[in-house]
Amino acid sequence: MDLLSVQRRIEGAVTPVSGSNQPTHRSGMVRVVLVDDDDEFREALAGQLADEGCAITSFASGRAALDYLLQTNLADVCLLDWRMPAMGGIEVLRELRRRGVMTPVIFLTGLRDDAFEEEALRDGAIDFITKSRRLSVLLKRIELISLGKRPASPPPENSAGATQLCRGPLELDLNAQSAKWHGRRLDLTRSEFRILGFLAARPGIDVPFGDLYGYAHDTASPPANEEAYRANVRSLIKRLRNKFRDADPSFDRIQSYPRFGYRWSMK
Q1: What is the β-pairing status of strands 127-130 and 164-167?
Q2: 172/128 same-domain check
Q3: Tens of pLDDT along 192-204?
Q4: Distance of CA 128 to the CA centre of its chain
Q5: Of 53, 38, 35, nearest in space to 7 by CA
Q6: How many CB atoms within 10 Å of residue 65?
Q7: How confident is the model at residue 236, as a pLDDT?
């Protein structure tokens, strides 16, 4: 189900309100502030997220949401529409960051132009999701960003004792630490092989920079200098992509998740 179809699931969601809907927060629930001036969409999505175990506080205006976050800062993540009367989402984000509130912000919007996404990420948003995406995508983003969960454990074929990992045309020999793409062997360094295996074992899951650095270099935690280890991971990924593209110019399975990390796409 995509997010736009949530509008057709209003029955049984929550009662529409013009201001905010503040639930009782139970320990362990993800606290989500949802901001959208479309009453039907907002209330229907609030109901869906509540069904998934989120504690929802919803607002119909950017100003009301901003006041709430400045006063309480009681949110694990903020889902923010871009276009709203009086105070748009990007203005809310900028004011939050100017005032030192670092609540993770995900823009949830009907806008598709890359320029809007670039502006949002540049001004401090964590993600930018169009309303045409499936609800499961939004739920995974909330899980990764607000709860800080690490990627899921490797699938059974990459468990202890396994020697092979296959992802379509990708073949990994875990013992020999060798890789083939469409039957053609890739000349990878140890770190390149490890980061490739880590991604391929988690298809479709966004893996953060810190996890990729730690696994590539066999360390429990990345260095304190975040920009340094991010640069190291970017360099590894760039070399990996170049080696794949030497074998297959159309290769695009390693995809970026801006400001967060990378994912292995299964198409």
Answers
A1: unpaired
A2: no
A3: 999 999 899 888 8
A4: 9
A5: 38
A6: 28
A7: 92
pTM of model > 0.70 = no
Instruction: With beta carbons less than 8 A apart as the criterion, state whether 44 and 12 touch.
Output: no
| Structure tokens that stand for 219 in this block | 């360390």
Give the C-alpha separation, 23 to 26, whole Å.
Answer: 9
Q: Per DSSP, what are the bridge partners of residue 255?
A: 263
Q: E strands along 182-260, which residues?
A: 184-186, 207-208, 254-257
Q: Give me the domain span that covers residue 201.
A: 156-264
- What's the pLDDT tens digit per position in 70-97? 998 788 899 999 999 989 999 999 999 8
82, 169: one domain: no
pLDDT at residue 49 greater than cutoff 60? yes
Q: Classify residue 182: in a domain, yes or no.
A: yes
What is the chain's percent helix, strand, coil content, to nearest 5? 40, 20, 40
Do 141 and 200 have their domain in common? Answer: no
* CA triple 221-232-101, angle to 5 deg: 65
CATH of residue 113's domain is 3.40.50.2300
Residues 138 and 161 placed together within one structural domain of the fold = no
Average pLDDT, the chain: 80
> In which residue are the tokens 């000349």 written?
187
Q: Which two tokens stand for residue 182?
A: 């469409």
Categorize the per-residue pLDDT at 1 as very low, low, confident or very high, splitting at 50, 70 and 90: very low
